[in-house]
Amino acid sequence: MRFSKRTDWNTEESELARAHRLRVAAGLPVADLTASNPTRCGFAFAPELLSALGDARALDYDPQPRGLAEARRAVCAYYADHGVAVGPEQVVLTTSTSEAYSFLFRLLCDPGCAILAPQPGYPLFDFLAGLDDVLLQNAPLVYDQGWQIDPEGFRRAITPRTRAIMLVHPNNPTGHFTKPWEAEALGGLCREFDLSLIVDEVFLDYGFGEEASSFAAGMEGVPVFVVSGLSKIAGLPQMKAAWIVATGPEAGAALERLEVIADTFLSMNAPVQWALPAWIEGRGGIQEQIKARVAANLVELDRQLAAAPMVNRLQTEGGWYAVLRIPALGPDEQTVLRLLELGVWVQPGYFFGMPPSGWLVVSLLGEEEEFRTGVGVLTGHFTR
Ligand SMILES: Cc1ncc(COP(=O)(O)O)c(C=O)c1O
């Protein structure tokens, strides 16, 4: 069989994955500091969430490419709660933000075109872009008393093939919210080079400070596409519901094209769309639990790190992760393997585009006792 070049991946199990699998299979203890699945972190989900799937209207098949109007209105209600007026005609439903990205890449890029994304960042982008024959260009985030965008770094990375700048607001894993001055600088680049802005707001509601504003409000003279979904805002990744909100110049034309892309797949199912209003409206219950967990684990992390001066937590403003600076004495892969032998499972920073030595990422989502144990093993390793 002749395979496409775009699927020419190395699918061999990595050394880290293998070591983790063997340790779990051997029944040895592993405190998991990588947990990112909210359905498996001991949160209480109301049983009524499932009743919402029993709406009898879902027995009718009404193939609406942008999604059922009632479901799109629920998305608008979410933005109204954030003080942003979004009309249902601006919304296209998708089964995941991954699918939303894929729709946007196909809307904006021909094969070989490029999208600019800050690094460190979410590792799935490489795969998503590759599957749509799009090149991912990286522009570094810099760390200086907190993470920041380097607008000159973005400018240098732009080429004639660049079609869009992508942001994650707040970023995964750095927890960096795009500040108004950064948004203005990137908006200026979009206007100058005729680029669109794609903003992933899946963690928008998980800020540690004041409520952050949504890019769905738009930006003068810039086509802005916001993507978000239930995975994080309602802690329901299994329900497979997400969306794109389009604003700015030519949003109407963009939406017409997105409608054709969506019509080609019609991937949304009816029960989920009818349930969406209840899930969006009921998001507070799970968000409160997640916020309390993340805040408690962050306090615990700092408490233990106070006794481990070799490890520093970088500033974070939101999201579910913390980035740790560790002594850059060797490849982080070896450190992660050693930590696994000691009983804690963490992610090396290079998974997220950080340098190969000196960086770890821990999830703040896991259950408190497991988290405390895992951080204890980690700090113990660095204080010996
Ligand atoms: C920044 C970011 N965007 C999107 C997603 C995935 O969302 P979905 O399940 O809607 O594809 C994740 C998942 O971790 C993420 O970290």
What would a concise description of this structure say?
This protein has 384 residues and is α/β, with parallel strands linked by helices. The chain folds into 2 domains: 10-40 and 284-383, Aspartate Aminotransferase, domain 1 (Alpha-Beta Complex), CATH 3.90.1150.10; 61-281, Aspartate Aminotransferase, domain 2, CATH 3.40.640.10. It has helices at residues 15-25, 48-51, 69-81, 97-108, 124-131, 151-157, 180-193, 230-233, 251-265, 270-281, 283-305, 332-342, 368-383, and strands spanning 31-32, 91-94, 114-119, 135-143, 147-149, 162-168, 196-200, 224-229, 242-247, 312-313, 321-325, 344-345, 347-348, 359-363.
Q: What features would you describe in this structure?
A:
The chain has 384 residues and is an alpha/beta fold. The protein has helices at 15-25, 48-51, 69-81, 97-108, 124-131, 151-157, 180-193, 230-233, 251-265, 270-281, 283-305, 332-342, 368-383, and strands at 31-32, 91-94, 114-119, 135-143, 147-149, 162-168, 196-200, 224-229, 242-247, 312-313, 321-325, 344-345, 347-348, 359-363. The strands form 3 sheets. Strands 2-9-8-7-6-3-4-5 form an 8-stranded mixed sheet, sandwiched between helices. A 4-stranded antiparallel sheet has the order 10-11-14-13, covered by helices on one side. A two-stranded parallel sheet has the order 1-12. Helix 4 crosses helix 9. Bound molecules: pyridoxal-5'-phosphate (PLP). Pyridoxal-5'-phosphate is lined by residues 36, 96-98, 122, 168, 172, 200, 202, 229, 231, 237, 242. The site of pyridoxal-5'-phosphate has 13 residues, from helix 4.
